[in-house]
Amino acid sequence: MAKNEKKDSKNVSMPSDLKYLNRKRILQIIRNEDFISVNDISEATKISRPTIKKAIQSFEDKGLVISVGKGASTNAGGKRPGLYSFYCEKVILCIYLENERIYFTILSMKNECIREREVPFRYGDTFEKFQDILISNMYLILKESEICYENLYGISLAIGGFVERNIGIVRFYSKAPEWGRNLPIKAWLKELFPKQVIVVENLVRTAGRSLLLEEKYRNKRMAAIYTGAGISACYIDREVLTGRNALIGEIGHMTIDYSDEEVCSCGSRGCFEQMVSESRILNKLNENTNKLSCSTMKQWVESEDIIRHLFEEADKGDELAKDVVSYLAEMFSLMLKNIAINFDPEIIVMQGKYAYAGEYFKTELKEARKKAKFFPEETASKLYYDMRPLRELQKLGGYQELSKRFFDNPELYEEM
Ligand SMILES: [Zn+2]
């Protein structure tokens, strides 16, 4: 990223790689702390104090760092060190669509939430109506938070469907077929916000990208399984992978049982998403009326949150709930096996509904995965359950993408 942008930025003298890396590191350390002294930065980075002082001066000139007074002296009678803090007026707008709601969040460059909005929309409405709702609320949230356009650095829009992020086109959104094909959302936003960085991306890949903010997930080969209304995955090999037709990660349509009777919206049979759908779970519960009549699941068959209740009842020992959870665990183990033989990730992260799976599911899944004999347990991918709400992950994913672009820009590390 840094290298490409170096080529792109004209009229800027090329920073030496070392200066770029040193200054980037210094700014990173200042960003991570509430306030910090030159000495502390020097100790943490082994960069000389004069170099740090020069860098801080340059960051102050650029409006990225401010002096925030003096700290306590380290030895008796010693000089009190000057303290510095990251300060930047630029903000990021993250937008995320799911379940007929649009969520808007303004974040600072330090990932602090400045303002949020949530508005309903309907998939059945026209694309023009959706555009109207989107744009009026974007203007509204900027106005409410008193952000001027110059200070809006970028906009991240996370949406379902087949999204070609390079050109920002939504090829097709199965939930809103009326919208038609090849929606040029990025080009439309760029016309309205010509100075801003615009990212239009699939919501599963946006949520997956949020993991890159954490040290334990960085520089790893990972698959993040997104379990919301549907099931899909984000494949990451240091960067988020998409593929020629943005198909990488469409694990909901992985064939698990071709002899299955139900035909999926993709035209195939036995797709993973259908094998574990809520209606399939209900069918399994209703298969044996005698069993259901003596099961604690009886009270939940009408519930909107049936998966959560199923996990809870299985954990409490209900036999029918345990049967269905074992079935789900088996389906997940087949899906994970297919991911392993195609992608072989080090880490798999479960996000969304299945992140709240109970202990019974986790144990059953562990057992079912052992059946895949060709990879020994100790080298199988590590499975994590990420219980943060999907909405939170969308915000973090949008922040990760835009803040990375902002802080990778070599102009930040050059003299004015
Ligand atoms: Zn399918």
Describe the fold and architecture:
With 416 residues, this protein is an alpha/beta fold. It folds into three domains: 2-87, Arc Repressor Mutant, subunit A, CATH 1.10.10.10; 91-210 and 393-406, ATPase, nucleotide binding domain (Nucleotidyltransferase, domain 5); 215-388, Nucleotidyltransferase, domain 5 (2-Layer Sandwich), CATH 3.30.420. Helices cover 39% and strands 20% of the residues. It contains 14 helices and 15 strands. A five-stranded mixed β-sheet has the order 6-5-4-7-10, with helices on both faces. It has a five-stranded mixed β-sheet with strand order 13-12-11-14-15, covered by helices on one side. The protein has a three-stranded antiparallel β-sheet with strand order 1-3-2. A hairpin with a 1-residue loop joins β12 (231-237) and β13 (239-240). α7 (203-209) crosses α14, α11 packs across α12 and α12 (319-343) crosses α13 (359-370). Zinc ion (ZN) is lined by residues 253, 264, 266, 268, 271.
